[in-house]
Amino acid sequence: MNDPNSRTSERVTAVQKVFESQGIPPEEKLKPLNQRISTLRGEIDGLINQKSAHKAAVALGELWRTEAGPAAAAFVTSRFERLRDRLPLVPYHVAILRSFTVEPVVPLLRGAAFCLGVDLSVSVGDFNAYSQEILDAESLAYSSAVNAVVLAVQTTDIAPDLWNQFAGMSAGEVEDAIRRVSGSLQHWMRALRKRSQAPFIVHNLEQPLRPNLGVLDSQRETSLAEAIQRINQEVRRCAREIRGMYILDYDALVARRGRLRWHDDRNWLMARLPIAADQFVHLASEWLRFLVPLAGRSAKALVVDLDNTLWGGIVGEEGITGIKLGAEYPGAAYQALQRALLDLTRKGILLAVCSKNNLDDAMEVLEKHPDMLLRPKHFAAMRISWNDKVQGLREIASELNIGIDSLAFLDDNPFEREQVRASLPEVTVIDLPKDPFQYAAAIRDHPVFERLSLSAEDQQRTAFYSQQRERDQAEQNFQSKEDFFRFLEQEAEIAPVSPATLARVAQLTQKTNQFNVTTRRYGEQQIAELAAKPGSQVLSIRVRDRFGDHGLVGVAITCDRDETCEIDGFLLSCRVIGRTVETALLAHLTESAARRGCKQLIGWFLPTKKNAPAREFYRQHGFELAKQNGDGSLWSLDLTQRKIASPEWIKVSMTNGGED
Amino acid sequence: MASDLFGVPANQISNASSPETIEAWDSVQHLNLVLALEQKFNLQLSPEEIEQMKSIGDVTQLIEGKLQVTPS
Fold first, then answer.
1. Is residue A492 located within the same domain as residue A444?
2. Quick one: closest CA in A to B36, which residue?
3. What is the strand order of the sheet A301-304 is part of?
4. Nearest Cβ partner of A277 from B5, B7, B38?
5. Same domain, A127 and A237
6. Neighbours of A90 (CB within 10 A)
7. If you measure CA to CA, which chain B residue comes closest to A280?
8. For tag attachment on chain B, is the N or C end more exposed, with fewer CB atoms within 10 Å?
9. Residue A261 shares a structural domain with residue A192
């Protein structure tokens, strides 16, 4: 199924496509792959010199997919560094604390990150000094530049007795070792969290390739395998209790790649590098499954094609009974993909359709085909017509109220993929393998679909969007906005942040780009600290209307100083923009600030590329411009003179006591 | 390949280039060079061979020698 020849030919076509899109003469295409890669390198440098940054980035991505290795990593990284100022790259800095050599993996990590739109800086801790570095507040782990910390420790280093001498250990000694090792790991997790709010990614412990006692290991009261499992369980439990702790299942990674192939004794003995060279890229990918979403490069919606993507064949030609879809070969591959897509919706990722098709043919399959796992209700938007897909993607982004850079695109047709890449370079284009049986894996392996935590809102997001469609249809029946608002029967519930809402509040500060006056991003830990600080408040707002529950959609953070209350953050999910909910929340802020004895309410508007919807917010609500500088504008409202009325059509309630 | 790994233009690399003349050629890059060569030419280098690699000329000679002994 996956023979090397077919993979090579796939690579050849991948490279070919780049050449075609750049008008390379056909005779060039006949040269062997190696030669073509070196030509491709020349082409990339040509594109960089011509200042075609986006085309160069696409070609670099192709080169990386063609030969991900040390030399390509150095090339890709150096070229992206030259393009840095001309591409929308997200800077991110990770510190890797480790018990083994990871340096040769770092260039691959950086190269792969660049291809995913992340300009990753990597600091590596001293060899086997992870413990001191966690406990030393001056170490690189706590540098203010560092965004996230990885702890890469392997079983042989942290539990040498279990690893090497298990055969000679008594039951009591084994218990002690389990307690000692899981205790140390938990101690380090707590110590790091005490000194830093950065996300902490901890490798769990891997199982040995060969247990010291052979098959006897499984017969013992406590086997080595079980001892390691118990340590891992303890560490997992501890991570769930501390905010921003994430377990990287290193044991599962090694198992997935194959324990025998993962390890390399020569590298280990010569360079304290336990991993075989051809596996480096997989360790780098696993790190990126955490770092890419942490850096904010995650897709909010996946736009899919229909024919030969969700099912095999072309419904317009073969009809609903002719297409391939079902539990058996060959339709099973498409069902497996649909299952992967369904799992994305459970993580809060929206699905949308963009297909060149006859609407009736396509809808018949979506609604009636007995083996479809995805139905119209699973799609937040649909564009089924003969129109251009680039235009379709633009429309879908605006209908869903998300940025183009939050879209991913899945299409079996390389031509469509190239078109989208060329016209909308900010869209994440998924490279589908030739074989439909690998489609599902391509989705499951892609880091832009990873989520590190889930809120209740995430799980219901698809339902939110279908309610939104009903709302939009209803709105068209009303003459005035006010009539529509009255019809909506909105209810807002304002509450101080609580342990139950902490994750969602932090998530909103991280993800809200449009209606956001300061765009200050906070982690859960920081929100908890803000909420506990005397004089400051972190409020959340939930909104419900006759069509359904929007969930927790807004956050306001204020801070009192003397008789002035400053708005540190004020943001609203795009789902409720334009429904006067912002006025209700602001009215509550003015009222409660006045009640606390504040004489004025002030707030900065800090412009970004995306927050234009909030630009007039303060002015429209009667604030006066107090100051303006390079960062933005400061607005002020005299609370002794002015009041803001809450819109009569929203029923507002305060819960959990609040300040009352 | 050496130009990529060490970040030095190809025209500044000669057979005489060595860790003494190329600043970025440290122990980590040496390991990277070994791994890149093994991947590129699909061969395994022994610890003795790795120690022999003291200049670009040594590397070229070593790889050419190995490719002739075991043509693939």
1. no
2. A70
3. A379-385, A350-356, A301-304, A407-410, A428-429
4. B38
5. yes
6. 15
7. B35
8. C
9. yes
- CATH number of A196's domain: 3.40.50.1110
| Cβ–Cβ contact A69 with B under 8 A | yes
Residue A455 lies inside a defined structural domain of this protein: no
Burial grade of A77 (CB within 10 A; 0-12, 13-18, 19 or more): buried
Which residue, chain included where needed, has tokens 């005489």?
B16
CB contact, 8 Å: A100 with chain B? no
Residues A302 and A337: their CA atoms lie apart, in Å, by 13
Give the Cα separation of A485 and A473 in Å (integer): 14
Last residue of a domain, one of A248, A275, A294: A294
Q: What is the mean pLDDT of each run of 10 residues along chain A (660 residues)?
A: 41 43 44 71 91 89 86 91 91 96 95 95 94 93 94 96 93 95 96 93 95 90 94 96 94 96 89 92 97 92 97 95 93 97 94 96 96 94 94 94 93 93 91 92 96 81 79 84 90 94 92 92 91 95 88 95 95 87 95 94 94 93 94 95 92 68
Q: Does A344 touch chain B (CB under 8 A)?
A: no
- Are the CB atoms for A292 and A118 separated by under 8 Å? yes
**CA-nearest residue of chain B to A77?**
B4
Is A270 in a helix, a strand, or coil? Answer: helix
- Tell whether A431 and A536 lie within a shared domain: no
B45 CA to chain A: closest CA distance, Å? 10
To the nearest whole angstrom, how far is the Cα of A174 from the nearest Cα of chain B? Answer: 37
Look up the CATH number of the domain holding residue A512.
3.40.630.30
Q: How many CB atoms lie within 10 A of CB A492?
A: 26
- Contact check, Cβ <8 Å, B47/A273: no
Cβ B35–A78 below 8 Å, yes or no? no
Give per-residue pLDDT as tens, A240-258. 999 899 999 999 999 999 9
Domain boundary among A50, A81, A112: A81
Contacts of A323 (CB under 8 A, 6+ apart): A307, A311, A312, A313, A314, A315, A365, A369
Tally of domains within chain A? 4
Q: Which helix (H) or strand (E) holds A15?
A: helix A4-21
Residue A277 and residue A317 in one domain? no
Using CA of residue A314, residue A317, residue A323, residue A329, what is the dihedral sign?
A: negative
Decide if A457 is inside a domain: no
Torsion sign, CA atoms A546, A475, A471, A556: negative
Q: Is A603 helix (H, G, I), strand (E, B) or coil?
A: strand
Contact B4 A278 (CB under 8 A): no
Cα–Cα–Cα angle for A114, A198, A148, nearest 5°? 25
**Same domain as A405, residue A520:** no
In a domain, A344, yes or no: yes
Interface of B with A (CB under 8 A): 1, 4-5, 7, 28, 31-32, 35-36, 38-40, 44, 47, 50
Give domain status of residue A525, yes or no. Answer: yes
A211 touches chain B (CB under 8 A): no
Domain that holds residue A532: 468-654
B60: closest CA of chain A, how far (Å)? 16
What are the structural domains of chain B?
Answer: 2-69 (1.10.1200.10)
Contact B35 A277 (CB under 8 A): yes
pTM: 0.77
Q: Which of A577, A621, A582 is nearest to A602 (CA)?
A: A621
Task: Provide the shortest C-alpha distance from residue B34 to chain A (in Å).
Answer: 10
Structure tokens at B51: 């120690």
| ipTM score assigned to the predicted complex | 0.78
User: How distant is the Cα of B5 from the closest Cα of chain A, in angstroms?
Assistant: 5
- Is B39–A277 a contact, with Cβ atoms under 8 angstroms apart? yes
Q: pLDDT tens for residues A53-70? A: 888 998 899 899 888 888
Tell whether A605 and A525 lie within a shared domain.
yes
Q: Are residues A269 and A394 in the same domain?
A: no
